Amino acid sequence: MDVEHSLLAKKLDEEMNRSMKTQVERQPTKKRQNVSSSKISEFFFTKLPYEKDEVQQKQFLEDLALLIVKNHLLVHFLESPWLKQFALQLNPCIVFPSKKTFS
User: Fold this and answer.
1) pTM for the whole thing?
2) pLDDT at 99
């Protein structure tokens, strides 16, 4: 009886594997290419921007003010897309101020 049971279980497993393979083969390639596991991780691990009163945001704004004042830079420097890109790469949670807000 155990031999018959193991043979039946083996046949059932083979049949299930075969049917699963054919189901996968029937799916269009485009649908499988569009599914991205990174989208799921991005949803769970995306950090929210800092609030105005958070210590990290205040420290960033203070450091940015010192950078502009100590180096005699124009406030227009804040509109540089490269500066924004650089700062956001270092910390994606910061909220970059506009020239109008900063002055």
Assistant:
1) 0.53
2) 79
